[in-house]
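so ive been stuck on this for like two days lol. basically i have the seq below and the ligand is S-adenosylmethionine, smiles is in there too. i just want the complex predicted, nothing fancy, no docking runs or whatever. if the output looks off dont worry ill sanity check it later, just need somthing to start from for the group meeting slides
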Amino acid sequence: MNVIYWRDKYIRFFKYHKYQKKFGFSSWHMEPVSSKPYVHDVIEYVKNDGKQGDTIVECGCGLGDIIADSAFIGFKRKGLDCKREVINADEEIFRKAIQDGEISFEIGSFESVKGEKIDYYIALNFLHNIEPDQVKNMFEEVLSCNKIGQVITDSVNSSSYPYNHDFDYICDYGYSKRCLGEYKVQNGIRKIMVYGKSQ
Ligand SMILES: C[S@@+](CC[C@H](N)C(=O)[O-])C[C@H]1O[C@@H](n2cnc3c(N)ncnc32)[C@H](O)[C@@H]1O
């Protein structure tokens, strides 16, 4: 841990401590964005690849470090998270953007979106806790019930994480895969994968 990490942790504590006290979300959310280098790379990728008006849905959005980033102003955005306390905090933190119609938040998960056209569907840093057959069902449901341009997700190869997923079944839906980046995690590597529709 370096000086930048501790500076950012301190800043985040002052920004979010009152919300953690009020809503009681997990301390994981108090970790600064600089401890998650993939966040910056995913934001840059979608911002540069997409265009104003595109739709982004992030499942497992936490405190909106990705979906609520200002780089996405002009995109249509929805954040989903299965934890009520996280969404309650998002609704207070991002009240103005919600009122302005820039973004919405909802308690939910993969099954919560149906019949939508989504340009970027993001699910990062939680699937490693879910058993592979369940994750496969979740992706199959969201891919067959919606029109999704690109899926951005991650797999973690580490003895400290329960499951290391292979998402190649996503390619059966007409997507081709590429690796956006690899990031060190405890005892291993996180790979961020982009599945895009072949041109
Ligand atoms: C570790 S945080 C990651 C937040 C964000 N994706 C990021 O990378 O910064 C994981 C989030 O996913 C949520 N989550 C876990 N399992 C989920 C599920 N099955 N469906 C929706 N959200 C889930 C948790 O509540 C938590 O807010």
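The chain has a mean pLDDT of 97. The longest strand covers residues 147-158.
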